[in-house]
UniProtKB/TrEMBL annotation:
Keywords for the protein's UniProt record, in alphabetical order: Magnesium, Metal-binding, Transferase
Record carries keyword Zinc: no
Official protein name in the record: Isoprenyl transferase
Biological process terms in GO annotation: polyprenol biosynthetic process
GO molecular function, one term: magnesium ion binding
EC numbers: 2.5.1.-
A Pfam family of this chain: Prenyltransf
Chain sites annotated for binding substrate: 26-30, 38, 42, 70-72, 74, 76, 193, 199-201
Cofactor(s) it depends on: Mg(2+)
Residues reported to bind Mg(2+): D25, E212
Self-association state and partner proteins as the record states: Homodimer.
UniProt function note: Catalyzes the condensation of isopentenyl diphosphate (IPP) with allylic pyrophosphates generating different type of terpenoids.
Organism from which the protein derives: Thalassospira profundimaris
Active-site residues, as the UniProt record annotates them: D25, N73 (proton acceptor)
């Protein structure tokens, strides 16, 4: 199934956030509420990903970051993790050509070392094939944890200090940001979490210092353009001061 028509163009005149990040939560509860296995919820969640990518392009969002699989998710039952890996393979194989055709640039953040070789190859291919695209910057967080990301950045900076490349006194917020996996990506303006839970679960901790949060009661498989538009309207009505007095 195609992600969206190649004719889709930004057509909305509302003020939209440049970067939207989403914690996609509620697949299991969606399935349980229908008396179905959790795997069916994850499959329905893939459809919501397609809808959200299409809606983001139509609304003129420049950056979309999706929390696909956390470092903590490896603790789930082996059968569920296996199914999630199968869905990831399927998504990358089936959707890459359409994403590329529609000008989507894919970037993966997180620890790839725990993925199977074929999945790592698919992730590399997705990034390489879409690297020149500019229509939408899609970042997918896989095997990602913000604390691990920050710890990795600290190790890289410590290595550079030990090698004499920089001095300890020269370490600034900019230096830290340059060593995060999101280097080159603007901080999220808006972070949406579905399912009604009100926490950010180790997602983009550094990057979300001044992000606006919206917690939606809708379960992720039911998330659609109307929910995204509602969140954007909420965001547009907020006054963002970034610590200053306006």
């Amino acid at each position: 199934m195609a992600v969206f028509s190649s004719q889709t163009q930004p057509s909305d005149t509302r003020t939209v956030p440049r970067h939207v990040a989403i914690i996609m939560d509620g697949n299991g509860r969606w399935a349980r509420g229908r008396g179905r296995p959790r795997t069916m919820g994850h499959r329905a969640g893939v459809d919501a990903v397609r809808r959200t990518i299409e809606a983001s392009v139509a609304l003129g969002i420049e950056y979309l970051t999706l929390y696909g699989f956390s470092t903590e998710n490896w603790k789930r039952p082996e059968s569920e993790v296996s199914d999630l890996m199968g869905l990831l393979r399927l998504f990358l194989k089936r959707e890459l050509a359409t994403l590329h055709k529609n000008g989507i640039k894919i970037r993966i953040i997180g620890d790839r070392s725990r993925f199977a070789d074929d999945i790592r190859a698919l992730l590399d291919k997705a990034e390489e094939q879409t690297s020149g695209n500019t229509r939408l910057n899609l970042t997918i967080a896989l095997s990602y944890g913000a604390r691990a990301e920050i710890a990795h950045a600290m190790r890289e900076i410590a290595r550079k200090v030990a090698a004499g490349e920089i001095s300890a006194d020269a370490i600034t917020e900019d230096i830290i940001e340059q060593n995060l996996s999101t280097v080159g990506i603007p901080d999220p303006d808006l972070l949406i979490r579905t399912s009604g839970e009100q926490r950010i679960s180790n997602f983009l901790l550094w990057q979300s210092a001044y992000t606006e949060f919206i917690f939606e009661d809708v379960l992720w498989p039911d998330f659609d353009r109307a929910h995204l538009e509602k969140a954007i309207d909420n965001f547009a009505g907020r006054e963002r001061r970034f610590g200053a007095v306006i």
